[in-house]
Amino acid sequence: MRDFAQLFASLDETNKTNAKINVLKDYFISVPAEDKIHTLALFTGRKPKRQINATLVKTWAIELANIPQWLFEESYQVVGDLGETIALLLPDGESTHGKSLAEFIREMNDLNTLTENEKKIWLIDSWTSMTRQERFVFNKILTGSFRVGVSQSLIVKALSEISGLNPAVITHRIMGNWDPATFSFHDLLQEEDGSDDASRPYPFCLAYAIQETSDKSKSAEEIAQDLGDTIEWQAEWKWDGIRAQVIHRKGEIFIWTRGEELATEKFPELHDFILSLPDGTVLDGEAICFAENKPLPFNVLQTRIGRKNLSKKILAESPMAFIAYDCLEFAGDDIRSMPFKHRRSVLEKLHQINPHQDTFQLSAIVQFDTWQELFDLRLQSRENHAEGFMLKKLDSIYQTGRKRGDWWKWKVDPLSVDAVMIYAQKGHGRRADLYTDYTFAVWDGDKLVPFAKAYSGLTDKEIKQVDYFVKRNTLEKFGPVRTVKPELVFEIGFEGINRSTRHKSGIALRFPRILRWRQDKKIEEADTLETLRAML
Amino acid sequence: MGKPLLQFNDCGIYCAAGNFYIDPWKPVDDAVITHAHSDHARWGNKRYLAHHLSREVLKYRLGTDIQLQTVEYGERIQKNGVTISFHPAGHIIGSAQVRVEHKGEVWVVSGDYKLEDDGLSTPFEPVKCHTFISECTFGMPVYKWKDPSLVHQDINDWWRLNASEGRATVIAGYSLGKAQRIMHHLDLSIGNIFLHGVIANTHEALERNGIKLPAATRITPEVSKDEFKTGIIICPPSALGSPWIKRFQPFAFGYCSGWMALRGAKRRMAADRGFVLSDHADWDGLIKAIDATGCECVCLTHGYTASFSRYLSERGYNAHEAHTYYGGDEATEEDELPVEVLNEQGGVIGGTSNESEEVL
Ligand SMILES: [Zn+2]
Ligand SMILES: [Zn+2]
């Protein structure tokens, strides 16, 4: 555990990519094999199951820290992270346990056989035998909230430098349904792929955005300059669903989302079509709610995803389909290095012979001869229930991760309104001690009604200024939330807008974010609820 | 019961009996200054009273023409029958707690303070009083400082490593206090010290005041870039992200502040290293200092006033929050920062003064 805590501290002590890679390499070379694979599991989001609930952990920490409960809660508000709060509040300790990371994880996994009192004794013994730094990573693992400040690509790079394997190969091998108790680090870095994991997906190929805000809009000429001849490109609508990979291998089916979540059970309607694909097929596409030949608004899908149980009612209200746009594996062969137009023709054939045409949709190709034509068509995205276009180079391979050049997303301008900040709340993680999460309101007659919460979009300097304002203009405090004097106006961008009965304003926004701080505007100049309703 | 000896009004901490203010935030006739940080010593007062060791820095910051009287720790000054005296606060060089006595009643205004001896400031001394107006910048139990000598050792180790790899070491801390504290503990066998202009100005002012500080070079375009490779550059936090800092490339950046105790705060500064080093008392320090005054009543300024007063109330103190315009943030103590924030924020200061005339 000491090595692992030190690794975490060392990664924290530098912002430089190369230094981080060196730290990772040193660690992976020096620790026992068992710790290596557990570390990799943790670093790729494969957390051990939580065996003690957070309330108990909190209660025991409060006891050991010897402070009132409210003070613990407020400390948590300041720090923004439970594991860190506990590590800071417990009395200082020395490292006396002598256990490895793997041993601690084994003990955590075995906790379900213990009584509550035995769990408590184990936890307090563990805490008192650790330093603050060890306690912090231990708490993060224990509470199932372990996250690491290095990207997966850095880990892949370090492993690639140790083993000499291509980074794309490693990225692929560490995906899928493996368990650190059975997957061996040795197999992972062997020349030949030793895995027989039928569920293993491919790393998603990700697109770069052509433009992100309304004030940076690009003209057709600029697009032409950047992308060249239209003949080399294919355009498809950009669908507003959940990016997913569907797999049929060895008689089994799997659905993976872009967040590497295994979601097979969440989409039962898709099972038939996937089973009808020839064995050894992997498709990339969008899982989306779909009825009467068109996609349903995203909030229908969102409601469905939020439900634990898929009731008959939910299934009827939000039927699923899969809009396929790529084929990554065919007849058991990885075809990602074939040109896109070839993969597309494979996909079209698979689609043609599939009996489930209702749930297996093919992403339509948008015909165009000039960029201007496509530019004009893009303005009809919303009528087509799309967010804009995906542009893909016809001769491109299926890249691993986000690579510039072959895939572009060209979204329609975001919708926006000017709104007044009325509540503020402290952020988490890197902004734990600043007011960074804001609630915004628009005018309804002479009242300001809240309609959206947003936090991203300001520069660090602006955040400090807003935080300064909040701390000096608080009207009321409700727990962590402060009501502030309505004075600051912001331009809020969003991707979509829907009617909502749950919100006071009667509307719900999709992906609201701060586009900019309108220091030039007075609150009287903010938009009205009517303006928002007109966008429905 | 008559009026309280000190009260918070629109302009600052006011003593009606003596007709003077302590650390006023709006211009007044008579200002008693605990220390020279910009949130405590503001521009525009008619007369200033401060400790000897604040003299040159106050003149540098507020103008050489200010009407300033300085005193020694423990010296007693009379104002309309009220006795004023200064007592070491251990926060920065020349920082003081201000003791006010009238008709047998004693109040102490802490200004900012810490209990550890930093080797430069006159160490903190508790002062018995009935009412203590205390800062609580770090008044949360998550803030517990480790032994500062270990932090200075970490800084030297980090500097040594950077120097051995041919990389400049840039370290940020606010210019009055932190900067001198950092350099006082540097291992000069590693390399030379270079100062950002703002820090060099403060450095020179302190030297005019008779303070002995390590030799350091002001950074000017004439200093050769090669010299930075093994050197340590001390700058204010605001220099980060400015074009000024580019000249040191390649460099490693460290930030010294009590806020670095939280991972989130460190990330926000985008620092390679965060050194937890504060000139304010930590949680245990605050409680120890308050207990040592033997006071019944505590008024809290700076930072976590609401939580800390609740905690003290539960421990039997008569504790209140006081609304002031003092920092509450080590970063805003950096001389140029508050001005910048205030200008851009326009009417924020004094705009919502619903806390004026708050009686303690
Ligand atoms: Zn200060
Ligand atoms: Zn202060």
UniProtKB/TrEMBL annotation, chain A:
Superkingdom of origin:
Bacteria
The UniProt entry, under InterPro entries, shows: ATP-dep_DNA_ligase, ATP_dep_DNA_lig_pp_1105_fam, DNA_ligase_ATP-dep_C, DNA_ligase_ATP-dep_cent, DNA_ligase_ATP-dep_CS, DNA_ligase_ATP-dep_N, DNA_ligase_N_sf, NA-bd_OB-fold
Q: Which GO terms describe its molecular function?
A: DNA ligase (ATP) activity
Cell inner membrane as UniProt keyword: no
Question: Which keywords does this Swiss-Prot/TrEMBL entry list?
Answer: ATP-binding, Cell cycle, Cell division, DNA damage, DNA recombination, DNA repair, DNA replication, Ligase, Magnesium, Metal-binding, Nucleotide-binding
- Show the catalytic activity: ATP + (deoxyribonucleotide)n-3'-hydroxyl + 5'-phospho-(deoxyribonucleotide)m = (deoxyribonucleotide)n+m + AMP + diphosphate
Instruction: State its Enzyme Commission number(s).
Output: 6.5.1.1
> Which segments constitute the ATP-dependent DNA ligase family profile domain?
313-444
Q: Does the keyword Kinase apply?
A: no
- Would you tell me the protein name for this molecule? DNA ligase (ATP)
Q: Which organism is it from?
A: Paradesertivirga mongoliensis
TrEMBL record, chain B:
Q: What class of enzyme is it?
A: hydrolase
Cite the EC number: 3.1.-.-
Q: Does the keyword Hydrolase apply?
A: yes
Please provide the record's keywords in A-Z order: Exonuclease, Hydrolase, Ligase, Nuclease
Molecular functions per Gene Ontology: exonuclease activity; ligase activity
Q: Which SUPFAM superfamilies match?
A: Metallo-hydrolase/oxidoreductase (SSF56281)
Determine the domain of life of the protein's source.
Bacteria
Q: Kindly give the NCBIfam families that the UniProt entry links to this protein.
A: Xnuc_lig_assoc
PANTHER family per the record? BLL1145 PROTEIN, CLEAVAGE AND POLYADENYLATION SPECIFICITY FACTOR FAMILY MEMBER
Protein name (Swiss-Prot/TrEMBL): Ligase-associated DNA damage response exonuclease
